[in-house]
Structures are given as C-alpha cells and as structure tokens.
Structure to design on (184 residues):
C-alpha cells in the first residue's frame, strides 16, 4: 500500500506552504529480512533541526539506525514470517548495521539487532511480537512503545501484514552496555 507523504515548509517571505504531497518514493524491500517493506519518510542529521529550505530529506540512502545526532522517520510493513530460513549476518548487512558489535545477549532470532537510539513505535495495522533478549511482548494496532536502545527483533507470527511507524532519534550508549560490545 502506497504511503502518502505531505511536507510543509516556507516560501521566501516566510509564509507557510505545502512543499510536497504525494506517494513516498524511498521504498526498500528487505529480502534477507523476510520481504519486509521499509518506507523512509524523513531524516535529520542534527538536533535542533534546521527546518529552512525545500530539500527532500528522505531522498538518501541510510541504514536502519539514525545519524548520531539526528533522527529517522519510517513506516515498515512486516509480512508474516517465522524467520527460520533467515541469516542473521545477511539481515544485519541488509539493515546497514554490518561491522558493528551486537551488544547484549547472543541473538535468539535472526532478526535480532540494536541501534544506538531511542525509538518511538506505533503499531498502525495488524499485530506483531517484539522479542527482547529473554522475553517478548505482543503488540496490536493502536499500541505504542518507547524502546531505549535494546537488543530486539520484530516477528510477525500472524497471518496478515503488520504496519508500524517508527521514529528513531540518535542516543548515547546505555550505561549498562558501555564497554561491553557497542551497538549498531
């Protein structure tokens, strides 16, 4: 399903204007991750953000993690999968997290990963399980989560797609993990 993205800004006189209104075009199908579809909506490189100009900040290549002092806004569609045929190494490489230490406990699922970020998560449609190192939580449409740099995997064990909106903001390394293997 196409995602409509609306971006506002300012003209040369400072008047609020519509910069764009149409289908979000930075869409990636992640085959190693079971065919999930990730639509990048916006990226910032610093905080506070300079909101001047008309540059489309979604027209770039970026992995799952946000810039160190920036943010990423994306919507991800997770198809049903059990993850049995997935390669953890291929998933990490596809997410743009290759070459970074995992941190936390050993991976219990091929989709396990961690980013140095605080993530605001909103389940828009469907349901999904979020696995942590030794526990999991079931989420359904309307549920929200604040995820603080934890090792995790999103696993859709249902029979239907699950759509989630993510806002990832660069964060410091959790004190509990400093010196224990880093992050993605």
């Amino acid at each position: 399903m196409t995602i409509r993205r609306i971006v506002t800004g300012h003209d040369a006189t400072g008047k609020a204007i519509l910069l764009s209104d149409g289908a979000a075009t930075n869409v990636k199908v992640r085959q190693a991750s079971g065919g999930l579809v990730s639509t990048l909506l916006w990226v910032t490189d610093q905080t506070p953000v300079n909101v001047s100009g008309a540059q489309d900040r979604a027209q770039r290549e970026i992995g799952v993690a946000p810039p160190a002092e920036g943010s990423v806004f994306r919507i991800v569609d997770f198809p049903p999968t059990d993850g049995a045929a997935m390669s953890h190494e291929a998933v990490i490489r596809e997410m743009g997290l290759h070459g970074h230490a995992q941190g936390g406990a050993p991976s219990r699922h091929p989709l396990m990963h961690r980013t140095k970020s605080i993530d605001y998560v909103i389940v828009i449609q469907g349901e999904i399980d979020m696995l942590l190192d030794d526990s999991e939580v079931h989420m359904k449409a309307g549920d929200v989560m604040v995820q603080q740099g934890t090792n995790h995997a999103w696993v859709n064990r249902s029979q239907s797609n699950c759509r989630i909106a993510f806002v990832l903001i660069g964060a410091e390394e959790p004190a509990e993990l400093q010196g224990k293997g880093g992050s993605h």
Q: What stands out?
A: The chain is about 5% helix and 40% strand. The two ends are 29 Å apart (CA to CA). The longest strand covers residues 36-44.
